[in-house]
Amino acid sequence: MSTLELHGVHAGYGKAQVLHDVSLRVGDGSITTLLGANGAGKTTTLRAVSGLVRFTGQILLDGRQVPAAPDAVARLGVAHVPQGRGTIGRLSVDDNLHAGALLRRDRAQVRADLRRLRELFPVLAERARSQAAGLSGGEQQMLAIARALMGRPSLLLLDEPSLGLAPLVTKEVFVLLPRLRDEWALTVLVVEQNADLALRVADHAVVLESGRVALAGTAAEIAGHDEIRRAYLGN
Amino acid sequence: MNLVQQILDGLSSGSVYATLALALVLVHQSTGIVNFAQGQMAVISTYVAWTLYDAGVPVWAAIVAAIAGSLVAGALAERLLIRRFEKGEPLAAIVVTVGLLISINGVVSLIWGTVLKQFPSAFPRGGVGSGNGGTIGFGTLGTIAVLLVVVLALGWLFRHTRLGLAFRAVAANPESSALLGLPVGRLLMLGWGLAAAVGALAGCLVAPKLYLAPEMMDSVLTYALAAAVLGGLNSAIGTVLAAWFIGVVENLAGTYISFVGGDMKIAVPLVLMILILLFKPEGVFGHKEVRRV
Amino acid sequence: MSLMIDLVKPDGGAARRPYGRMLTGAALVIVLAVFPLVMSPFANLQVTLTLVYAVAILGLDILVGWTGQVSLGQSAFFGIGAYGVAVCADRGWPVWAGLLFGVVLAGVVGCLVAVPAARLRGYALGMITLTLPVVAVPLAKRLEVVTGGAQGLNVTIAEAPEWTGLAADQWHYYVVAAGAALVFALAAALRRSHFGRAFDAVRVDEALATAQGVHVTRYKVLAFTLSAVYGGFAGVLYVVAVQFISPETLILTLSISLLAGLAIGGLRSLLGCVLGAAFYVVVPNVTGEVSAGQSYLLYGVCLLAVMLLMPRGVAPALDRVVRNVAGRRGRAVAPGD
User: Fold this and answer.
1) Rounded average pLDDT over B66-86
2) CB contact (8 A) between residue A99 and residue B178
3) pLDDT tens digits for B80-134?
4) Cα distance between residue A155 and residue A153, in whole Å
5) A92: Cβ–Cβ under 8 A, 6 or more apart, which residues?
6) CB neighbours of B181 closer than 8 A, spacing ≥ 6?
7) HEC string of B12-70?
């Protein structure tokens, strides 16, 4: 478990500024959801945390500034499941999972984790040797999450897990989040368009609007405000 | 010369092409670039080996030292020069390797001059009988054996080690790999380093067959490119089989089809290769990417 | 001026001053026209050869830059055009017949290669085109009766008419310059036509191009054929310039050098084709003068230096400079208006 804090973060691509003075806090062991319309800067926030986008301001992991290179951030225990899942299509399911644990030296524990994840996601055991690209969208999302967990992260960043999935599958993924948080000792920051679903499992929520934090509070508070829902969440 | 000898000689030349082709595949796998300087890098490595040998170092040790040096030099080339072009226009990257080719050729001529040098074979003289009074040289058999060892070693490295998995992950998807904490930059350096080392081996294998000269690898590079593409640019086994095919067909055509002769023999495997590519555009052994929409 | 269209974009500052643009064009034409009258034969040959290779690089640009294919075969088409005109001249046929023969032959071979090759992508296509020079060189040596074998062919074509009073190098300069100007103008027109847009569509996204009703294979074949025709025409101009052709001219190295010239000049730029050709022709002379022994090394280093400083080529870099200057001048003038 880890605490993530952003203080006055500005980030963007080239001349296009996407984030303007974003500050937020993701508490130890919580599930926080980052909501907002398309282009509000949700993905950019995650990419800034994991070093894929340059930023100014402070991003602190357990009180210490995160490094600028993605691999260095990952080594601090931050797992980022990007939009589109980032599974490596050309590699087998098993190779993908093992790639998630390449930095670990505790081999016995890696094997144990692999067993646990295969129990949790039986399809990963059934299709261990097939190319990851051949999995369905939902299966790939599970592979991506399982692979992230293989690295025993303390902070899990999930970018739009629902993208391209059937509603039922999406629900399955979200319902799983609290369980994963408890069993794998995680702090979770999940970006989502589907606010209803995300608010149901999250403890906290942050709403971004045009690259600025518009609202922050407990999930119940945000979910309870009809006006907020209408204004920022579009329903 | 009997047929068995001809085929084995073809396999031996094919093994040299295969070794350089494997270097090309390594580079293409890691950085997505076709390195036109691969042959020229092998040439300078071979000159280094020759210099060590000339100074009294045993030939095997000289070759090993040159290979080790090439590993470092290849990695540096990636870090200092190629990295700036990995994400840009592919043509720019190709042309940079052409610039590297020309520059290394210049350096070789500058240091060692253009006079041909005799490079010793690392294999013993003589050979074994092949029936009909012919002999198959140890050099021929040794070249094939070295290639087999290289292929097995690379296969083991990539399929059965953590380093190999990391390398394959980075080759397939650098950004995802970085998010998993893999040191992408260092792995790309390693890809180029390994390729340079394998290329150096190819240079040391071919030099005793010809003379050591700055242009020694030019034609080998053409064959190696052909083999690498025919193999799909991503399959070691496919590349080796393609290179052997090229080596054997070239040798047999040059010997037995009188019109072809020594100057046109290169055309035969290339034309056959084109016909194959037309029916299997992804190469004979290259795997099609599975895609889901 | 066709040469200027990519340097001075219609939306750039210079386009707002049409007189300035016409003046620049006129000045360029005058300089190019007077050049051979006052310069040495050697300098004339350098410019002539630059224009020759610029045409070959332009052909490559149609394929690589416009349509996004790879080719290592341009030297073979160059050779076909050159041998076409030289062999005809050798038999005593008129030069226009040789020109037609060389260019058409290059186009036919290009089309024959392209029809099957258009099904391939990327390096597989590069591979097939690599075969062309590898086969063409020994073939040219073999067909000794026609091609003069390894010795090559010496010919006398496009002699300066008596009334002009021009020396051979001057006349050849004008002939090549006129030919180059013609095909550059053609390419510029083509680029702006719906063909240019179709080529762009094929390069950017084949699936999307198909969806938009662009027949991808047809345009790939067309690009390849055009590229070959330009290569062949460049070969004809080459024979006009040097009155000689040998198998050594069409080796793979020329193909690679032309690709390098294209990258150095910059893709999709007519000016870039000329600059890339100038690099290929002029830089080896300069480095040779600096140090004969290390000329090749210096050439390689120059190539690397240009790519490192201007990874997208010289013409786009120049374009940016011009636009910055024009932009600054535009801003400086604006308050006064």
Assistant:
1) 95
2) no
3) 999 999 888 888 998 999 999 999 999 999 999 888 999 998 888 888 876 666 7
4) 6
5) A128, A129, A130, A131, A132
6) A71, A74, A75, A102, A103, A151
7) HHHHHHHHHHHHHHHHHHHHCCCCCCHHHHHHHHHHHHHHHHHCCCCHHHHHHHHHHHH
* C225-to-C69, C72, C106, C112, C202 alpha-carbon distances in Å: 12, 14, 8, 9, 16
Write down the pLDDT at residue C10.
43
Across the interface, whether the CB atoms of C298 and B266 are under 8 A apart is answered no
Prediction ipTM score: 0.90
Nearest residue in chain C measured CA to CA from B231: C124
How close, in Å, is residue C24 to chain B by CA atoms? 31
Q: Please, what are the domains in chain C?
A: 7-333 (1.10.3470)
Closest Cα to residue C84, out of C222, C224, C225, C238?
Answer: C238
Q: Give chain A's domain count.
A: 1
Pick the more confident residue, C47 or B125.
C47
Distance from CA of A136 to the nearest CA of B (A): 8
Q: Tell me if there are at least 3 CB pairs under 8 Å linking chains A and C.
A: no
Q: With contacts defined as CB-CB under 8 Å, which chain B residues touch C116?
A: 274, 278
What are the residue ranges of helices labelled H in chain C? 18-38, 41-61, 74-90, 95-117, 122-142, 144-147, 168-192, 194-204, 206-211, 216-242, 252-265, 270-290, 295-309, 314-333
A92 CB near a chain B CB, below 8 Å? Answer: no
Q: Between chains, do B95 and C116 touch, taking CB under 8 Å as contact?
A: no
Q: Among B24, B44, B21, which Cα is nearest to B34's?
A: B24
- The reply to whether A170 falls in a domain is yes
Q: Which residues in chain C have Cβ-Cβ distances shorter than 8 Å to B109?
A: 293, 296-297
Quick check: A50 and B175 CB within 8 A? no
pLDDT per position as a tens digit, C213-250: 889 989 999 999 999 999 999 999 999 999 999 999 98
- Residue pLDDT, tens place only, B242-287: 999 999 999 998 888 877 777 788 888 888 877 877 777 666 665 5
Chains interfacing with C (3 or more CB pairs < 8 Å): B
pLDDT band at C2 (very low <50, low <70, confident <90, very high): very low
Average pLDDT of chain A is 91
pLDDT in tens, B168-206: 999 889 999 999 999 999 999 999 999 999 999 999 999
The closest alpha carbon to B271, from A10, C128, A94, C227, belongs to C128
CB contact under 8 A, B102 and C259: no
In a domain, A63, yes or no: yes
Q: Which residues in chain C are closer than 8 Å to B221, comparing Cβ atoms?
A: none
Q: Provide the pLDDT confidence category of residue A143 given band limits of 50, 70 and 90.
A: very high
- Whether the CB of A57 is below 8 Å from some CB of chain B: the reply is no
Among B167, B180, B235, which would you mutate to test the A interface (most chain A Cβ atoms within 10 Å of its Cβ)?
B180
Find, in chain A, the residue whose alpha carbon is nearest to that of B287: A90
Indicate which CATH number applies to the domain containing A74.
Answer: 3.40.50.300
A101 inside domain:
no
pLDDT higher than 80, residue C125: no
Q: Which pTM value belongs to this model? A: 0.87
Domain of residue A57, residue span: 4-87+155-233
CA distance C294 to chain B (A): 6
Q: Flag if B99 and C303 touch (Cβ within 8 Å).
A: yes
